[in-house]
Each structure stands twice: as C-alpha cells, then as structure tokens.
Design a protein that fits this description.
It contains 27 helices and 13 strands. By secondary structure, the protein is α/β, with parallel strands linked by helices. The strands form 2 sheets. An 8-stranded parallel beta sheet has the order 1-8-7-6-5-4-3-2. The radius of gyration is 29 Å and the shape is elongated.
C-alpha cells in the first residue's frame, strides 16, 4: 500500500455532474481518493443514480482495491438529494411531530431507496436542538426544540438506520442549533460554557453514542469558552479528541462537515483546515465541490504524513476505524478484504485502543432502552422482535459458511477433526454441538470436539477469568493432539477472548484451517482466521448479554456447520438420520422405522436385518435395498464413501 492509498481512505470527495468526469478519475487514479459524496446535481433518476454508484464503486475498486463509502445528505424535507422518481420523506421536525412510528417508517423507506441505488452512508440524523428561532441553517432539520425530545427521536433514528444496514452519521457535533450564522457563508460562534452545552447541545449526542451511532459529523463553529485557540470544533483537539472521544467515549467515525465552507476556507484555508482536522481527531474530511481544493488537500495531507507531521499511532488508529466500519457496512468487503487487511495490519501495529468498547455486542440497544419498565408481555415481545434479526444476519454469510463446510469435509475425508473452541456461552455452545454429533450421526466422539475455557467445570458454572489466558487455549489444543489436519473454529461474540485468540494463532501457525465466528465487525479473530463468519445481529437486548442474539446466531451457525458437513460425508440419506447410534430403546425403534421407511420392507424383515447388521441402520438399509449380506453391504458403503444414494450406482457397475 502506498501513502496515497492510506491518505485516500481519509477523504470523501465529490464529482461534477451525473457521470464520472476526467477530473474525478484523475483524483482517484493519482491520489487514490477512496470515498465519494453525491448531491442533487449528480442524480437525475433512480436508474441513472444506480448506474453512477455502480460506476463509482467499480472504478474506485479498480484503482485502489478497496470499495468506497458512497455518502449522501438525505435528511428529508428541504435537505434532499434524491431525484424526482424516488421518495423524499418529511423533515425531521414533521417526523418528530408525527411520532416515533412515523420516524421508523421514514428511515426504513429512505434506507431502502438508498440501498437500491448503492449508497451506504447517510449524513443524518440531525442531532442539533433547534433552540434558536433565528438559526438560518437548522430549523426544521432538527427533531425539536428541547434536548430531551431530540435525544429521544435521535436514538430511535439511530436504531432504525442500524436495522436497515446503512451507516448513519449524526450532526453537527457539539451542536449547531444555537447559531445565528450559516457556516457555509461565515464562521459562527457559540459563546457557551461547558455547563450550558451539557444542558442542551450535548444531551442528544450522549444518547446517540450510548445507542451505538457509528458516525458523527463535526461543526465548523467557534466555542471560545471551550477552545481558546481560536479554531472551530472541526479543528479542535480539545473538542474532538478531548470531549467527544475521551469524555463521551465515542468510538465510531468522526467526519468533518464540508471543508470548502467559508467558515474554514475563508478563515483558515481548506488544505490547512484538513490537516488540523485530522490532527484534532477527525477520521474523514469532506472536500466535495472544488477540484483544485480536493487535489491541494490530498497533496497537503500526504506531505504532512510523509514528513511526520501527524501522530502516527493516532493516524493508524483512525485508519483502523475506517477499515472496520467499511467491513461492516459494505457487503462486498465480506468477500474481498485483502486490500483492507493490508491497511488494517498497518494500523493494528500502532493501535492499542479498547476494542471491546467498540464492539456491537457492548453497545446500547435503543429498542430496549426502557425495558425495565415494561410488562412481561412487552419484554418478551421486544426480545422476540430482536431475535427476528438473527436469521437474516446469518443469511448474509451463507457463502462463507458453505466455504468452511467444504474445508471441514476435506479434513474429515483426510482423517482430520472439527474442533470448536470458545469461552463462556460461546464455549458451551461449541461443546453442545460437538456432543450431539455422535448420537445423531454415529461418528466417533473425537471427530467433532468442543473446548471451553476453564474446562468441564465451566460448562455448569461461570469461570469468567478463564478466557483471559491465551496460553491456556494453546495448552488445550496440545492436550488433544491438535494437528494441521484438523479444522479449528474459534467462537467468541466480541472477538476479543485471549483464550480463543491464542488458540487460533497457534492453529494458523502450524498450517491448520482456521475459522472465527463473531458478532462484532472489529473482532480480533478476523485478523487471524482464514474463514470469517461475522453475524451482524446488532446490540443485545440487555447490553453485553451475548447469550441472547449472539448466542442464538452462534448456535445456528454451528448447527449449519456440523449438519451440512455430516450430510456431505454421507451421514444422511434424503433427510433421514441413517447413521444414528441406537443406544436406547427409543433409538432402536427409530432405527426400525427408518429401515422400513427407506426400503418398504415388512416389520419382521426390518427386525431381522437390523440384528444381522449389528444394529447399524445404514448397513441394514443397504442389505435390503441391494439384497446382500452384512459384509457386502459394509463393503459397498465404504466404496460409496458412506453415501446410500451412491450404493445402487456402484452395485449396478459391479453387476
């Protein structure tokens, strides 16, 4: 990766007109500009908009190897970029007046419109409080005039956008509602104390952060009682890093407002403003309209980076955030993450932030925010509603699950094993799935094996500290004589358990197939494992309680892995468990029913053949179907790879 690739990820640029221009192509080809924003002049119809987004995506991937964020300001009302044949919903103020149900419906409709043309980032909702009637730029773009009202509706909007799978960006931090000057034209000033900001402006942002908003946009506004250096919030490390990141605990992306606005261009200069914004802690700067300023800003940032003008650890941590949010919100990256991984590895070398606090599983779920005040029926209804998100999340990763199944089947055929490893709920689910394979499919107990941090004692009681030792994961693998012929599947909801990470690193180091199941896009396991199964189920109903949706997702994935693998190696005929072990009377009766159902033989014949087959249902079935004795049936099954469906073909060839 060149310096241009790295710098290009930290820009959002625009283009002139409804098609790719030579200037746009040059900026992408020469400077690797990696992200784009669309405006009304770019979009003429839904069909043209989709074609344009497809062209943007294809060209940027061709030139940089990385899919772009394609952003838009589609707030609704008077701030709309969509063409006439697409839907523009009401303004935030009107939706606030209509109620939360109307807001959720509007977000779902807008997200569907954006998704069908290929936009993956919406610069909304507005989290500013419309507290100044003379404000020339906010007005009905705000949900309302009180901080509590805006906070409530902002949280609903954040949850709705998250469900829709579009990266939303709240704006304009730390608050644009009490200005009387438009930052497009001049430099506004809000002369408030920190206490005054807390009382009004910051509340909606605090609530949105608690609900896991993925991105926030900075405001080009002076706050002289907060930042004494005479720079606006966008360029203030005190505000962006000090207040937003360190005090409010925001772990998502910070985007600048457009850096060509006069508030920046006229008073500081756009390229210089971009440099200071990045130094302040902004992840992605927007330079959207002036090609000369786009180029000058890209060059200025690259030169500053090359000359050591940025805190390298902070720069790489920012790059890591961009990488992880691209992986989460751009579906194409689930199948082609090589270029991103190169960037991510570079950032990871310097990044030491608290990755767990960024995890989706640790974020607040707006849909269950007041669950402690609900009735029993309301509580279980909320839980059920959230559970409905699990199956669609798994549907998105079916190709990844299938690819892992194929590797498991190859391992089985070569004498290898499937090993699950996890801690807590994740570990118990792995042990459960492994323990159910022998009675269901008649396999040796060692063929599918589950390991849990803390050993067998952790199956029935919590041993939370057991997951903190990476060396324990390695020791447990060695205790079962794990080799390169085996497949290791690490299971961890957050993706940060050292016990699992240590085991995956060991397995990868000896050349074994590795896989990771996680419900966090930033899972550390994904940097190690060959197969990355990211189940994006969203925040839990009870924050951090990963036995809920995350556990359900993991259980379904494990079911799919073991079941599909067993089917592929011949443990199922049609949809019948023909290789079960009849270890009790119930299973004996099931075996007899299987023999009769598959072959159509009489009850007496089923009993006789079952006994002659040493109570092996599959062998008995082949004996009846082919009219052979037990030894011959066993030989046919071996020759057919264990598949009853192939036995008749083989029998026909043998005469």
């Amino acid at each position: 990766m060149t310096v241009e690739h790295i710098i290009g990820q930290r820009f959002i640029i625009g283009l002139d007109g409804p098609a790719l221009t030579p200037e746009f192509r040059r900026l992408v080809r020469q400077y690797k500009a990696g992200n784009v924003i669309l405006f009304r002049e770019n979009l003429q119809s839904a069909a043209q908009a989709k074609a344009l987004c497809d062209d943007i995506k294809a060209f940027i991937i061709e030139e940089t190897g990385i899919a772009p964020f394609i952003a838009i300001d589609q707030e609704g009302g008077r701030v709309s970029r969509l063409p006439a044949d697409m839907t523009n919903v009401a303004s935030a103020a009107d939706l606030g007046a209509a109620g939360s149900a109307a807001l959720v419906e509007a977000v779902a409709l807008t997200a569907a419109e954006l998704g069908r043309i290929g936009v993956n980032v919406n610069l909304a909702p507005v989290l500013d409080v419309n507290s100044n009637p003379a404000n020339p730029v906010i007005g009905d773009r705000s949900f309302g005039v009180t901080p509590e009202f805006v906070a409530d509706f902002g949280s609903v909007a954040v949850a709705a956008w998250e469900r829709a799978g579009i990266l939303c960006c709240g704006k304009h931090f730390p608050g644009h509602g009490d200005t009387s000057v438009d930052s497009h034209l001049a430099l506004p000033c809000v002369d408030k104390t920190r206490v005054e900001l807390e009382a009004v402006e910051l509340l909606p942002f605090r609530r949105a952060i608690a609900c896991g908003i993925p991105a926030l946009m900075s405001a080009h506004i002076l706050f002289p009682q907060i930042e004494s250096a005479g720079v606006p919030a966008t360029m203030s490390k005190t505000i962006i890093t000090g207040i937003l990141r360190e005090e409010l605990g925001f772990k998502g992306l910070v985007l600048s407002d457009a850096m060509e606005m006069n508030a920046i261009k006229q008073y500081y200069g756009t390229p210089a403003g971009c440099i200071e914004a990045i130094r302040a802690g902004v992840d992605i700067v927007l330079v959207c309209h002036d090609v000369a300023l786009m180029e000058a800003s890209l060059v200025a940032i690259a030169e500053t980076y090359t000359n050591g003008g940025f805190d390298r650890a902070a720069f790489d941590a920012s790059l890591e955030r961009i990488v992880q949010y691209k992986k989460k919100y751009i579906p194409e990256l689930l199948h082609n993450t090589l270029a991103l991984d190169v960037l991510s590895d570079k950032a990871r070398a310097e990044c030491s932030g608290d990755s767990l606090s960024q995890a989706t599983t640790e974020q607040c779920n707006a849909a269950s925010w007041d669950i402690d005040g609900k009735t029993a029926l309301e509580i279980v209804t909320i839980i059920n509603s959230e559970d409905h998100k699990v199956a669609p999340a798994i549907q998105k990763i079916l190709p990844e699950i299938a690819a892992l199944v194929e590797d498991i089947v190859i391992a089985f055929k070569n004498g290898g094993r499937l090993i699950y490893i996890g801690a807590g709920t994740s570990g118990r689910l792995g042990v459960l799935d492994a323990s159910e394979c022998p009675p269901t499919y008649g396999v040796d107990p060692s063929m599918v094996h589950g390991l849990i941090a803390g050993g067998n004692d952790a199956l029935t009681r919590s041993i939370e500290s057991a997951e903190d030792r990476a060396e324990a994961g390695v020791a447990d693998l060695k205790s079962i004589k794990f080799t390169e012929a085996d497949v290791l599947v690490g299971i961890t909801a957050s993706g940060s358990a050292p016990y699992v990470l240590g085991a995956l690193e060991y397995a990868a180091g000896i050349g074994a197939i590795t896989a990771a199941i996680s419900c966090n896009a930033a899972s550390k396991t994904f940097a190690i494992a060959r197969h990355r199964l990211y189940a994006d189920v969203g925040p839990e109903v009870i924050t951090g309680s990963t036995r809920m949706k995350s556990g359900t997702a993991q259980k379904l994935i494990l079911n799919a892995l073991s079941t599909a693998s067993m089917i592929r190696i011949g443990k199922v005929y049609k949809n019948l468990m023909v290789d079960l072990r009849p270890v009790n009377q119930k299973l004996v009766q099931r075996s007899l029913r299987l023999i009769r159902e598959v072959t159509g033989c009489s009850a007496d014949t089923a009993v006789r053949v079952f006994a002659a087959a040493n109570q092996a249902p599959k062998t008995a079935i082949v004996m009846v179907l082919c009219g052979v004795d037990c030894a011959t049936a066993e030989g046919l099954l071996v020759a057919a790879g264990g598949h009853i469906g192939r036995v008749k073909q083989l029998r026909g060839r043998l005469g």
